[in-house]
Structure formats: structure tokens, C-alpha cells
User: Fold these one by one.
Assistant:
Number 1:
Amino acid sequence: MDAWLKASTNWGNLIGQVGFGILGDKLGRKKMYGVELIIMIVCTIGSALAAPMKNGWSILVILSIWRFVLGIGIGGDYPMSAVITSEFANVRYRGMMLSAVFAMQGIGI
């Protein structure tokens, strides 16, 4: 069960990158950026408030579910943040801002 908890965010990340990449092209990047932001906020709060359920699901199962969906939101944020930055940044500062976006992803911001 511990392995599911550790891997759930990574699997969600994979699905989120592919899914939000396709949806961003079809439905609009700004709209999908808002959707993935809402997913990340709700799932972060859900992870923080997770507790075992009365039907027998342990805290690890609940956290794995929240973290999987959170991973989908995080996966959507990786490609969307770079594209949104490159589309709306001033030409003069575009390279610097894109470098900052990719540098911050490495440290988790």
C-alpha cells in the first residue's frame, strides 16, 4: 500500500500532462489553466484533511486517491505554465521568464 501512495502522484502526473496538453489545444489554454489550478487547490486541501473512512478504507487509500488526482493537476501545470508564459510575456523578457518557469519546476514552485 505504501508503494501506491508513493507512485500515485507520478501516474497522475503522466495522465495530466497528456490530458491537459490535448485539452489545452482543443478547449483553450487559459481555460484549462484555470481548471488545473482548481484541481490542485481542491486536492491539496483534500490531502491535508484526509482521514480514514468508516467503510474500511485506510488513510493510505484516501491519500493515494487525493494524490493521484493532485498529480493530474500538477501534470497539467507543467506544460500549461510554460505555454501561458511564452504567449503572454513581453518579448523583451520572454526568455528570462521561461527560464524562471523551468528553473522553478525543478525545485517544486
Note: The radius of gyration is 16 Å.
Number 2:
Amino acid sequence: MEACNPIAREALRLALTPVINQMSVIGMIAIPGMMTGALLGGAPVDQAAYLQMIIMFMISSATALASFFAAIAVIIVTVDTEHRIRPDRIDDQAFVLWRARKWLVQQIVSLFEDVYAKFKNKTYAYGHRRVNEEEEREMLITSRTPISPFAPP
């Protein structure tokens, strides 16, 4: 467990950096929505600031607790009772939603490719069937003219 301390500290530092940066600019650069609403509603400035501080501390503490419990859960899963890191317990696949999205995008792209291929081979322009390369080659070799789909049988 002690071997994971530097990694856990770095993970917590990275997770909490945006929240700490947001807290450092509240009031000076950014006036949050709740404080603005309280001021426009006629509340005193000190009460609006007090309410905004409470909200920011609640958001920060929720982020800190979630990050802490996530780091603890990862350490519990990846480190066994003998204090060894178990790489077999680490799933290196992409998250299931990302895999599902990738599959869905591939299916849509293949569908459009199939539709495009069918459209490309069977396009009608001005009432005549479009001739593909193989048919054109055969017509040049046999000196045939293409048959119009609207010609009488």
C-alpha cells in the first residue's frame, strides 16, 4: 500500500487542481450564478457571498471525497493482500460506452459506404443507366451500344 502513495497523491492533486483554481477566482474574476441571482433578487452582498462560499465549499468537498474514494477503490482492486500490484486486475480495454460508440460509428459508416457503392453503380442520368467500367470495357471490345432501360423490348 505504501508504494501506491505517490501515485495516489499525484492522482488526487490532478483531480483537485481545477476545483482549487475555480475557488481562487470566485468573486474577483467570475461572479457565479447563485451570487448574481441573489444580488439581483435584492439580497445583501454579504449574504450572497456567504451563500456562494457555502455552495463552493460543498462542490469542492464533494469533488475531494469522490476523488479520494475513487483512488482508494482503485488501490483496493489493483493491490492484493500481499501488497503486490496485480496487472491482471487492470482492464486495459476502452470504457464500454466508448467501445459501443465506436461500433455504432463503424456500422453507420459501413451503411453509408454500401449505399454509396449501390448509388454509384446504378445511377440514372437523363433516363439512361450509368455504365460501370466493366460494362464499358465489354461494350468497347464487342462494339455494342448500351441498352436504354426505357427502350422497348
Note: Helices lie at 5-25, 33-40, 45-78, 96-121, 133-142.
Number 3:
Amino acid sequence: MLEKREAHLQSKMDNEEQVARANVTKNKRVALAALKRKKILQDQLDKIMGSRMTIETQVMAIEAANVNMETFNAMKIGTEAMKNIHKKLDIDKVEDTMDDMKEQVDLANGVSEAISQPQLFGAELDEDELNAELEGLEQEELDKQLLNAEAAPVALPKVPVASVRQGLSPLHQASPARQQQAHEEDEDDELAELRESMGMAA
């Protein structure tokens, strides 16, 4: 309704302004009267706009109050529900329940640990004795390895005498006569070995 009234007043103000413009040079008295009527209409329009703003503000306040009321009612209902729940609970009961639960968990862990332990069915083992025996076995094995290393023969390569002589430096080599004598002795030795292998006497 107020919107329609505002539109009507705005239309009349526009008409009065057109009359004033049309007579501003022809008839100033008519133009002045039109401006006065426009001014009166403007005042009415301002009052209506103010009233409309007040109403809109009230509407928003009412909506906010309704939201607050709904929120309050929801909180009240929630509080009552919590009270009803807590009537069946108290801190002592909760603590007792938590203690019982912890006790059962500890019991379950103990049972699991007992079941997982290997059973020797009467045979009692001394861990220290077993460790000492293991160390003794390790020491015996080390002793064997050391003995085998000491008894292992060292094979040296056979080097012919002639090769050794050829590898000597000039300072260590014998005279030609000595070399001839050594060569003859080598031949005699080889001949003797050949006769011996054939069963012949010297």
C-alpha cells in the first residue's frame, strides 16, 4: 500500500514539475504555484518513506526476535535432554566403569602374553648356562680355525737352478770356467738319474 502511495505522489510531483517548466517564462505565477504543490507532495512522500523505513526496521527486529526465540527453545530442549541423560549417570559410575574396563583390558593382555609364551612342559632351562655353553662352542670353533691356519703348509714354487743362475746379476755370476764346471756337473747328475731310472749301474 505504501509503495503504491509513493508511486502516486512521485507521479504528481513529476506533473507539477512539468507545469513549472512550461510556464517558467510565460507565466511565473503559475510556475511558482506548481513548485509549491511539488514541495507539499515531496513532504508527504518523505513522511511515507520514513514510515515505510520504520515498518521495515520493525519487521527485521521481529524476525531477529523470532530467531532468538527459536534458538532459545532449541537450547532449552537440549538442556532438558542432557538433564534426563545425566539422571542415569554420575561421575562415580563413570569412573567405576572406566576402572573396570581398564582391568579387563589388562586381563586380556595378560592372557594373550601367557598364551604366546612357549611352554617346555616341565623342562626348566637356565639362560646363563645356555649362554655359557654357546660361548664355549664359539671358542672351540675359533681354536680349530687357528690350528688349521698354523698347520697349513706353505707351497713354494720350484725354480730351476739354471733359471736362478740366469737371473743373477753380473756381479753374482761365476767365471766361465766355473760355469763350465757347473754345466758338466748338471749333465752328470742328469745322466746318473737316467741310469738309475733305467736300472743301470754307473
Note: Residues 167-172 have pLDDT under 50 and may be disordered.
Number 4:
Amino acid sequence: ENYAVSNYIAEFWNTLTNAAMILLAALGIYSSIRYRHGKRVTAMYVGMLVVGCGSACFHATLKYTTQLLDELPMLYLCAIALYSFIEIDKKVQFGVWLPTSLAAFQLTITLTYLFWVQNPIFHQIAFAATAIGAAVVGCNRLYTTNMSSGTRRALFRLHLLGHLGMWGGFLAWNIDNVFCHNLRSYRGYVGTPLDALLQLHGWWHILTAYGSAFLLLWAHLLRLARLGHDNLYSVQYFMGVFPYVGMKQPKKID
């Protein structure tokens, strides 16, 4: 169904649904810069923004070069998250050698994937290893950080929503792969505009965008708790549906 909606966009709905990740990342960048929460936090949201833009470019063109823009930034985002969890405190502990080592590791993976092992399984293994590393260090930071019960509940909720988004998106992606021909016939039967609701790869983009956003908000709020500032901020919603970290409103005293 390439170029079915537009003569200029190969997969229209798969391209459009990346707007969710781009907008959520932009909100995170705005929030972290506005409240001066640190370059490490901002870098995670920038990584998410690059993932969304790269995915949109790939689905708009379906070229190998833009496919790399879809795949490789996911590795870099996980590496940034890993670094941010390791260096979660205000004072940098490991100097320049840690970011240098992580960058060298990611460069090695990138070059290997580009020139020697052009197999998606290699990319998936490298991504999983980096993501698991970030998750393990992040959970360690969670259990070694003193925080209020309210903050702990908020972090639990963000972690749960993040995993629901990621695994829900993964389920939609697999259903789309297995039942692609059936879904295509159903889309033809219901017609426009209801056929857009059966674009399960697009739902994979939306669900993983929210899953990624909630997990990055988890990391964001955890850093604030680590610095003792979590009582000043909370997760808020722009237009009721787009989450970000904002400053709490002071309570009025009559």
C-alpha cells in the first residue's frame, strides 16, 4: 500500500504517527531546558526526538539510508540513558572516560552493522544489551535513592505506563506482521477514514512513543529525586494527553 494516500509519502500513516514521539520529545526538551534540569536529561529527550524524526524519514521514503536513521538512533538513546543513570548525581564521578567509552562502543556497533554484519538480529542484540544495561542501572538508582512515598508512587506509575506502552506496541507490531494480508482486506472493506484505525504499525509508533516518553519521565523524575528536588515538580499533561515534567503550583492559603 505504498504511496496509497500521497504521491510524495511512501507510507503515509506510518509516517504521520511518528508525530507523537516528536511532540512528546519536544515537550521533554522544553521542560528540561526551562527548569534547568541538566544537559543529561535534555540529551535523553533529544535522542528520542532523533528516533522519531528518523522513523518518519524512513517510512516516508523506504530507503536504506533512512532505515539506518530509524534503527541506529535507538541504540544511541539507550546509551545516553545508560550514561544518565550512571552519572545521575550532580557531581560527575567518572570524568570523560565514561562518555568516551560509551561513544566508542556505539561507534564500533555502528561500523560493524554498516560494513560487516548487516543483519537486523545484530542490531536487535546490541539494542537489547544497551537497553538492559540502562534498565539495571536505573533500577539500582531507584532503590538507593531516598524519596517521599508520593514520589515513589509516581515513579511506579510511570514505570508501569512505560512498559504497558512498549509491550502494547510490540503486540500491535507482531499482529500487523502476522495478519498483514487480513488487515489489508479489512481496511479495504471499511474504507476511508476508518481504515486508519487498522494501521497497526502506526499504533506501534504511537504506543511506543508514549512508552518511551513515560520511561524517560521516570528517569527525569528519578534524577530530581536523587537531587532532592522531586517535591517541586510533578508529571503534568499538555492538552490533557501529552505528559511532561512541570513545576507544581503552590497551594493557596485562605
Note: The beta strands are 233-238, 242-247.
